[in-house]
Write a structure and sequence with these properties.
α8 runs antiparallel to α13 (290-331). The longest helix has 54 residues, at 66-119. The chain is an alpha/beta fold. The radius of gyration is 36 Å and the shape is elongated. It has three domains: 3-331, ABC transporter type 1, transmembrane domain (ABC transporter transmembrane region fold, Up-down Bundle); 346-428 and 510-596, Rossmann fold (3-Layer(aba) Sandwich); 440-507, no CATH class. The strands form two sheets. Strands 6-7-8-3-9-10 form a six-stranded mixed sheet. It has a four-stranded antiparallel sheet with strand order 2-1-4-5, covered by helices on one side. The chain has helices at residues 8-19, 25-42, 44-55, 66-119, 122-126, 130-137, 139-150, 154-172, 174-181, 183-221, 223-228, 232-284, 290-331, 392-398, 422-426, 443-448, 456-465, 469-473, 492-506, 522-536, 571-577, 580-595, and strands at 353-361, 367-376, 381-385, 407-412, 415-416, 429-432, 510-514, 540-544, 556-561, 564-569. It is built from 22 helices and ten strands.
């Protein structure tokens, strides 16, 4: 294909897409050779039909005995059968090889895009919808398959087929050839116009489809909220709006298609009329035979087909390029957090954590942490308290390097965490968050996520530590019970204890807890707190405290306001200061009394 008609950025995407074919040169070669052979073999039947017309059918020109005509007919019939068998074999070989190759390319692309997703920072996923990312991994890669199946090997064979046909037709009758070629320039012009118009639409189509996928994924995940607020009709209207936007873009595509291809079809028909008008005149003038007219009639559709194919192929390529562009955007995305070139493996740590004058802000946002300094000794419990938006979550997100501070340093056992590998850092940290996330699978799979090579005995021991073993054993299949997406089949307290068991199995030196007991019953809260107490033993623990009564035993309580540390001390000393912590504690105490 001539890449001059592809814009520069698209040309780069095209070349990059072609690079995915390079490791499969053998398969591509088989596809091209099969397609060329298919095209060459396809030229044979019309020639035999012409020979039958001239040499077998009595026409007064060839004085040949009947038995000779029958012998010729048998020979030509045998030749046709052989050619058709060859066409079938070549067609099967080409289809088999190229479709398998298409699946290989999809697999390669999905591996690359998923591998990149694993390296991207948390900030990337915070700013994008899950459904949009899924659309790029699934449906966009599927579109690229069409490039392999219907474009990668077709252009060469179509060009060669066109040259061969024109040569044969010119040799048979230059006059008829000139007539046959009259519509071709018009068809090329229409194909060029079609390609230019369709090019700009396909990216929009992919974007609108991504919007639909993102909306569906989000609303299905939040279906309980939708129903709880009786917002089914509202969400349906939103979906319809997205679907109609996609529909409008598809209508634009269909409109251009339905204008172009009927026009091409009309030109083909007019070409056939011209041949059937010119052919008989030449026959009457003894400048052509009836067999020549039969050959031209057969070749005519084949002559115009490659021109139409080039337009179809161009459309396929444009759709594939639009999809590939979205895929490569993800593959080319650079992680915000990456290992330093001289990063070392963090040795097993004791758990001393230091924040040294840390200032932090999210992209294009205001500072959420300002000059934060914290020191935690190994095994200490550090509680972070403050009103919503004070910066508690931002602090704990800096410890595993989900984000990096704009100023200052975070140290673990004296190691600047920017100078160690992320894997060695995070392997010594575990998190049990307020929004407990469990994977779709079994109880065993979710606990084992903390240590993939854990034995059944280790899994059961972790569950016992988390006060989860008893309820797990009461499940229909015990540890092999399927818990559904995000653990939907479990209660809030059960999910939390599974998450604690997972953290226990990971055996971290540093633990981050975002307490989530406010929405569970008293019995579950008691069991969860007992499990958390066991989990925190001997580990440096950062607790985001929502209920201040649960952190009385913390070694340090740090009060935050507007991104700054306002108070530091233990429970008793902070109450004596009669500051923000004391006020918050008194308020919660009164609320508990009123609700009790």
């Amino acid at each position: 294909m001539d890449t001059k008609n592809i814009p520069k950025n698209k040309r780069a995407v095209f070349r990059r897409l072609v690079n995915y074919l390079r490791p499969h040169k053998g398969d591509v070669a088989i596809g091209i050779i099969s397609n060329i052979a298919l095209a060459v073999v396809g030229l044979g039947p019309p020639l035999l039909f012409g020979a039958i017309t001239d040499q077998v059918v009595p026409n007064g020109k060839f004085d040949m005995p009947t038995h000779d005509r029958i012998n010729f007919l048998k020979l030509y019939a045998f030749g046709l059968v052989v050619l058709f068998l060859m066409q079938t074999i070549m067609s099967w070989m080409r289809a088999f090889v190229m479709h398998i190759l298409g699946e290989k390319i999809i697999l390669h692309l999905r591996k690359d895009i998923y591998a990149r997703l694993q390296t991207l920072s948390v900030s990337y996923f915070d700013s994008r919808q899950t459904g949009e990312i899924m659309s790029r991994v699934s449906s966009d890669t599927q579109v690229v398959e069409e490039f392999v199946n219907h474009a990668a090997d077709t252009v060469i064979s179509d060009v060669l087929k066109l040259i061969a046909m024109i040569s044969i037709m010119f040799w048979l009758s230059p006059a008829l050839m000139i007539v046959a070629l009259i519509p071709v320039p018009i068809m090329f012009f229409l194909a060029y116009r079609f390609a230019r118009k369709i090019r700009s639409i396909h990216r929009a189509v992919r974007e609108k489809l991504g919007d639909i996928n993102a909306d569906i994924q989000e609303k299905i995940s939040g279906m309980r909220i939708v129903k709880a607020f009786a917002r089914e009709e509202y969400e349906y209207d939103n979906f319809v709006a997205n679907a109609e936007n996609y529909f409008q873009e598809r209508v634009r595509v269909v409109t251009i298609w339905t204008r172009f291809f009927p026009s091409v079809e009309l030109l083909v028909r007019l070409g056939q009329v011209a041949i059937w008008v010119t052919g008989p005149i030449l026959i009457l003038k003894d400048q052509a035979t009836m067999g020549t007219l039969v050959i031209f009639t057969s070749y005519l559709g084949m002559l115009y087909e490659p021109v139409g194919n080039l337009a179809r192929i161009n459309d396929t390529i444009q759709r594939s390029l639009a999809a590939a562009e979205r895929i490569f955007e993800v593959i080319d995305e650079e992680p915000l957090i990456r290992d330093d070139e001289q990063a070392i493996e963090l040795p097993k740590v004791q758990g001393r954590v230091d924040f040294e004058s840390v200032t932090f802000k999210y992209d294009d946002g205001e500072e959420v942490l300002k000059e934060i300094s914290i020191h935690a000794e190994p095994g200490q419990i550090v509680a972070l308290v403050g009103r919503s938006g004070a910066g508690k979550t931002s602090i704990v997100n800096l410890i595993p390097r989900f984000y990096d501070p704009n100023e200052g340093r975070v140290l673990i056992d004296g190691f600047d965490i920017k100078r160690v590998t992320q894997k060695s850092l995070r392997s010594q940290i575990a998190m049990v968050l307020q929004d407990t996330f469990l994977f779709n699978g079994t109880v065993r799979d979710n606990i084992k996520y903390g240590k993939l090579d854990a034995t059944d005995e280790e899994i059961i021991e972790a569950a016992n530590t988390a006060n989860a073993h008893e309820f797990i054993e009461s499940c229909p299949k015990g540890y092999d019970t399927e818990i559904g997406e995000r653990g939907i089949k479990l209660s809030g307290g059960q999910k939390q204890r599974i998450a604690i068991a997972r953290a226990v199995l990971a055996d971290p030196r540093i633990l981050i807890l975002d307490e989530a007991t406010s929405s569970v019953d008293s019995e579950s809260e008691f069991l969860i707190h007992r499990a958390m107490d066991r989990l925190m033993e001997g580990r440096t623990t950062f607790v985001i405290a929502h209920r201040l009564s649960t952190i009385k035993h913390a070694n340090q309580i740090i009060t935050l306001a507007d991104g700054r540390v306002t108070e530091v001390g233990d429970h008793k000393s902070l109450l004596d200061q009669d500051g923000v912590y004391s006020q918050m504690y008194s308020m919660q105490f009164r609320l508990d009394e009123e609700m009790g």
